[in-house]
Give the backbone structure.
Amino acid sequence: MNTPPSASEAERTDSSSVKIGALVPLTRPGWVEAGQHLLAGLELAVREVNDVGGIAGRPLELVVRDTAADPQRAAAAVDELARLGVVALAGEYHSVVARAAAARANALGLRFLCSSAVLDALTEEPTEWVARLAPPQSRGWQIYADFLLSSGHSRIAVASQPSVYWSSGTRILRDYLAPRGGTVIELDMSALAPAAVCDELVDSRATALLLLVGHPEPAVSIVKSVRRDQRLAEIMIGAPAGQPEFAEWATLLGDSGAAIPFLRYLPERLSSLGARVETVLRERLAEAPSFVAFEGYDTVAVLADVLRSHGADRARTAETWPRVAVEGTRGQIRFSRTPGISVWQWAWAPIQVVDRDPAEPDRFRILHAS
């Protein structure tokens, strides 16, 4: 004899889902591996929310759109997701893409919790609709600049490409280092071949080279050229944007990809929740989860809390962000208004400077922490 469903089960079966739109780079020229990790974290958290009853008995559904690192494509996706009835937006890794999505979400009056993009000016004007988990670029890159100075590097070359994100990073480094005796030398990679970087480094007498360029190219070719040049045996290569975080970096560069410090947004030791999530994500990804996967998980954890507490009523969005108090994988998440930041900001996610251990490239060494 079949057992009739309980009231809660019947409600869940008969109710429509609560939809969250997810913006993720899943194809080139987007950073595909970052997108895969972000999506894995988002999906795991959605599954766990649904395992404990969803949102007031309604299942949470992730409606995924590939941004491919294209701002126009992201803005169009926001419009489409709004028409599909999503109650909020989540995700995005690329800062310039997230900025386009945030502008469109703000115009439509749609909540957007940005998972991973760090550009300080995520929106042109202050907004109630957008919040962010990742620390702003100014905070992370100033910590990276402190690491450079403490490691004895005051003459810094940056190999950069034209981009709002890269130019913002260069400005942050220069403004922070100059009063502390540091110098930033720009190498324009739109005019230089990777091999030509070596001569520029020798002439500049820089002791550190920072990769403010796309991944895998030209970053990988620059590293190979510098590592092969015996004149530059003592130079430190750095990548504040986090290129060495992902397994593809080690696959493409092998031992040459080690000892390249980058920014990572993880605590020195994960909480019990973080450790449990890490175990599941490792199984889903078949590799160690990056900080981006944790950002994805935390995004859904926050949005689920918001939806349970405040519902999908857009008129109540102004009440939402300052009342959040969610235990995430990397600490308790609360949002506030931070000077110079136009969106609601988690202040602050933990920040580390780490690199891949030359003796064991799959292991990360913590070199500096906020």
Q: What stands out?
A: The chain has a mean pLDDT of 94. The CA atoms of residues 144 and 353 lie 7 Å apart. The chain is about 40% helix and 20% strand. The longest helix spans residues 32-51.
